[in-house]
Amino acid sequence: MKKLLIVIPCYNEEEMLPTTLKTMSELMNNMIADKLVAATSRVHFTDDGSTDKTWSILEKECKKNPLFEASKLSRNFGHQGAILAGMYDNDADMYCTIDADLQDDPRCIIEMVKKIDEGNDIVYGVRKKRDTDTFFKRFTAQAFYKLMSWLGVKVIYNHADFRMMTRRAVEQLKQFPERNLFLRAVVPLVGYKSDMVYYDRTPRTAGETKYPLKKMLAFAWNGISSFSIVPLRLVTIMGFLISFLGACFVLKILLNYNAHGAVSGWASTVTLITLFSGVQMISLGIIGEYIAKIFVEVKGRPLYIVEEKVKNNE
Ligand code: UDP
Ligand code: MG
Question: What is the reported pTM?
Answer without folding.
Answer: 0.76
